[in-house]
């Protein structure tokens, strides 16, 4: 995961991007996270801390938000076949182990 800050930060939110792109309802095909606190048209405020961003991303990874999908296929599987979604996520985790 990368956090990219523009010159306009904190007036505009940073981009949080996963590389490689993960199969997740709230990650765009670019790897960018779809989270309301990272969207200046929604809930972004310059007072949001990096810790709040990291906690928000962690919560989103654990509990996807099906009401604000960024990957249609991932969202459909997440909502219609939770066991299938979990299996796909577990497989993905094995394919992309954490860096040591």
Output the keywords.
mainly alpha, 100 residues, two-stranded antiparallel sheet, Ubiquitin Conjugating Enzyme, 3 helices, 36% helix, single chain
Give a concise summary.
By secondary structure, the chain is mainly alpha-helical. It has 3 helices and 2 strands. Helix 2 (72-80) crosses helix 3.
Q: Which SSEs are present, and which pair or pack?
A:
Elements: E1 2-4, E2 15-17, H1 50-62, H2 72-80, H3 82-95
Antiparallel strand pairs: 1-2
Describe this structure in words.
The chain has 100 residues and is mainly α. The protein has one domain: Ubiquitin Conjugating Enzyme, CATH 3.10.110.10. Helices cover 36% and strands 6% of the residues. The protein contains 3 helices and 2 strands; from the N terminus they run ββααα. The chain has a two-stranded antiparallel sheet with strand order 1-2. Helix 2 crosses helix 3. The longest helix has 14 residues.
Biggest β-sheet description? 2 strands, antiparallel
Count of domain modules: 1
Which series of helices and strands comes N to C?
A: EEHHH
CATH superfamily: Ubiquitin Conjugating Enzyme
């Amino acid at each position: 995961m990368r956090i990219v800050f523009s010159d306009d930060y904190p007036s505009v939110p940073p981009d949080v991007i996963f590389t490689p792109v993960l199969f997740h309802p709230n990650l765009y095909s670019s790897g960018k996270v779809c989270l309301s606190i990272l969207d200046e048209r929604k809930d972004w405020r310059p007072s949001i801390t990096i810790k709040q961003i990291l906690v928000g991303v962690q919560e989103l990874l654990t509990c996807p938000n099906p009401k604000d999908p960024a990957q249609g296929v991932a969202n459909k599987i997440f909502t219609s076949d939770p066991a299938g979604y979990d299996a796909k996520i577990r497989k993905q985790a094995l394919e992309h182990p954490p860096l040591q």
